[in-house]
Amino acid sequence: MIKVFKNPLLWLALIVILGFLVRLYKIDNPIADWHSWRQADTAAVARSFYQEEFNPFIPRYDDMSAVSDNPTQNPHRYRFVEFPIYNSLVYFSYLLNGGVDERLARLISIIFSLGSTVFIYFIVKRHWNTFTALLSSLIFAVLPFNIFFSRVILPEPTLVFFSLGMFYFVDRWISENTQRLFLLGIFFTICAFLIKPTAGFYLLPIIYSYRVKEGRWWPIPKRYIYFLIVSLTPFFLWRVWMSFFPEGIPAGGWLFNGDGIRFRPAFWKWIIGDRFGREILTVTGSVLFFIGLLAKPLASEGKILHLLALSSLGFLIVFATGNVRHDYYQTLIVPALAIFTARGFVLLVSGLKCFVPRIFTIPFAFLFLSLTFYFGWNEVKGLYQVNNWAIVEEGRKADKILPKTAVVLAPYDGDTAFLYQINRPGWPNKQRTIEDLKNFYGLTHYVSINYDSLTKELMEQYTVLEATPKLVVVDLTHENLNYIDNIKPLLPKKTK
User: Fold this and answer.
1) What is the CA radius of gyration of the chain?
2) Across 308-438, where does the E strand assignment appear?
3) Would you give the distance in Å from CA 490 to the centre of its chain?
């Protein structure tokens, strides 16, 4: 085994600093890069806390459209998904800053990701060894896929942090049984489950830890029952409270196997070929990962981290459709991927009897790890790209033109990123007739960056506040009895 430098905490600190620096790349991106629709929804909750009222029990965002299996519109803009721990912290940063600044929202995600880097080190060190722990943290810190998804405005970085904290402190509490660890374990478990119940996939190794400690499954000692009751009650209370606001709960049943893709060839192609082999680990990193995963645990290693990998596989299978459609779902399993990629590297460098001599495996280990970062960056760098600057620039112009009380229809294929830049509540697509939206839900204005048929129709029928080649703002509260002739030349000319 390679000797570790005398002060591993110093190297951990350097890894954290490196992780922080690489996450500053394009931290000032507007909410218009990859998964902008989901980022906009998350950011809108924090902004509504700041601009309207801070009430984490009734989170609101910009979208007033029907977002659940119930076709009822959402005029109160309820957003009941995760309990808004992350959004609340972003709100407090806005208070300190004296205004909304999405860079602060990204910075909070970065801080949580760096905390996850530290937890990975202590978890792996506790069950394996210091060198593998440092390498696991390094891979987690600089893996290009994880760099991008740990500076997004999403709850996932916070979820990973609290899930790892739950794993670490509950595992230690089971072994050491101290009050401090009991309280820390409860705190991290409560937060993890309130953010997303998918934190439950981190429980399998904890259950194994309980079995090793107690030597039996039944009867369950009272301290574990107390722990479960206290730590899971807030989650169930939140779910009961959510049920009173059905119009604010997005449909989620499709995430499991809504399109029947689970275990089909396309499922493995997407998860193994595309996600593992291209976007997250790339081919070379996947080789290291599977070496680390499939090699038998050494005498000096425990089995608990293999169960973390197994539960991560379970997450991919249970939420089959969600994982195929959304790559940010795999943020939850990146710790396991980083840990076993590091283990695969260490096994190649250390050498095993079943391997070729170390004179061959050592250079391959360094080559594969280097290519993992190189190929990964080539795949991920496009995610930072803002594909349509018009929704940012023209949305901000519309924000200056519209009255503060405006309720807008801003069609953008259902994507709320344009609505977020306009900074008004409303609809990202036309779900009902204009008259219905006006009469029953208070629609006042129409904003578009396209001169489509609906835009032209509304420009002729209502008062036009702004008409440029890139932006149209229409006041739907006043009919345009005399169509403004000087607007017509601004319409895009038909090409022959």
Assistant:
1) 25
2) 408-409, 426-427
3) 41
3-class DSSP assignment, residue 280: helix
List strands edge to edge, sheet with 426-427.
426-427, 408-409, 445-448, 472-479, 462-467
Q: What is the pLDDT of residue 487?
A: 55
Q: How far apart are CA 94 and CA 76, in angstroms?
A: 23
User: What is the rounded CA–CA span in Å between residue 49 and residue 426?
Assistant: 17
Gap between the Cα atoms of 68 and 250, Å rounded: 4
Give the DSSP letter string of 189-227: HHHHHHH-GGGGGGHHHHHHHHHHHHS-SSSPPHHHHHH
Distance separating alpha carbons of residues 206 and 209, to the nearest angstrom? 5
Contacts of 125 (CB under 8 A, 6+ apart): 8, 133
> pLDDT tens digits, residue range 243-295?
999 999 988 888 899 888 999 999 999 999 999 999 999 999 999 999 999 98
Continuous segment of H or E residues that includes residue 447? strand 445-448
DSSP for 220-265, please give it.
PPHHHHHHHHHHHHHHHHHHHHHTT-GGGS---THHHHTTS-TTSH
N-term to C-term CA, the chain: 72
DSSP 415: -
Which of 177-186's residues contact partners 24+ apart within 8 Å by CB, and which partners? 177/223, 182/223, 182/227, 185/227, 185/231, 186/227, 186/230, 186/231
| H helix or E strand, kind and range, residue 474 | strand 472-479
Q: Which amino acid is at 400?
A: K
Does the bond joining 357 to the residue before it have cis omega, within 30 degrees of 0?
no
Q: Name residue, tokens 């005029």.
A: 75
pTM across the whole model: 0.93
Which pairs count as long-range contacts for 57-62, CB under 8 Å and 24+ apart, including other chains? 57/241, 58/245, 59/84, 59/87, 61/416, 62/416, 62/419, 62/420, 62/424, 62/425, 62/426
Q: How far apart are CA 193 and CA 348, in angstroms?
A: 37
Q: Mean pLDDT, the chain, as a whole number?
A: 92
Q: Residue 465 belongs to what H/E stretch?
A: strand 462-467
Q: Is residue 486 exposed (0-12), middle (13-18) or buried (19+ Cβ within 10 Å)?
A: exposed
